[in-house]
Amino acid sequence: MKDGSVIGIDVGCSPKRRSSAICRLDWSVLTISREIVRFRAVEPERENAIKHVADGRRIVAAAFDGPIRRGFDIIGRYRTAERMLTRRLRPLIGKPGQSSTPVGRLLNHHANECVRHLVTHSDVQDARHGVPIDRKALVEAFPSSFLGMMIEKPTRLAARRGDRSDTFFQHLATTGILRSLIEHCLPGRQLARDLRSVVNHDDRAAFICALSALCVAMGDFVAVGDKKDGWIILPPRRFIQSEQWALLHINAREEEAGALHIEGPLAVC
Questions:
Q1: Bridge partners for 197 per DSSP
Q2: Is residue 177 within 8 Å of residue 239, measured between CB atoms?
Q3: How far is the C-alpha of 145 from the C-alpha of 10, rounded, in Å?
Q4: C-alpha angle 122/127/130, rounded to 5°?
Q5: Taking CA 143 as the corner, what is the angle to CA 81 and CA 156, rounded to the nearest 5 degrees?
Q6: Kind of pairing, strands 31-39 and 190-191?
Q7: What is the pLDDT of residues 66-87, one digit of tens each?
């Protein structure tokens, strides 16, 4: 794919703080660029921000940091995807929130609203990946789990709940692993701006959602979940550390078949 765009949206719930953000990642044959806009979870500000970044564009895939499933209704229960990333992995990389809690239901609602605006104002391409939740290429991301999967011995970073995703982002940007992932997905291009220039918490989350969408667009990713309640996208198999991978496999054995989906060159692993 010589050129294209993906979208990542960090879904927030605050009507007062600009704690939501949308990132559009664009690539050509030579460069990779990004645009990020923050917004509050109120209308029309939310719709206007999404429209500004995505209006009329062809979007290969889009990822949302909030619970979504086929039909885009309120899920309201503890999902396979959440269990897969919590059991055994929580001490290493934290955990996603539960869709069954009041906060989870609220985030679910706001994620659905972001989906609605994006498909209204952009041309999201049809899903081509193996675990779709919709005819369009709309997927769920969870930045701290996505990042934590790529870190060897993440407990050494002493990340806490409030700063976990920022700590993980800084580590992976500094060590070059994030750049390696981007180069893996889009070889031969130059980043227009250094990754370390992304310093705001919500901007970083939106950017990682966009990377999750990019992995889906390139057909190289891991996902956890099920057909009923949706999937959370993780990095390509080759980027997941051996300890986290082993724990994912153990967790998958305690769920129904298919809870761990591998797509791409290493899908037989």
A1: none
A2: yes
A3: 14
A4: 155
A5: 100
A6: parallel
A7: 999 999 999 999 999 999 999 9
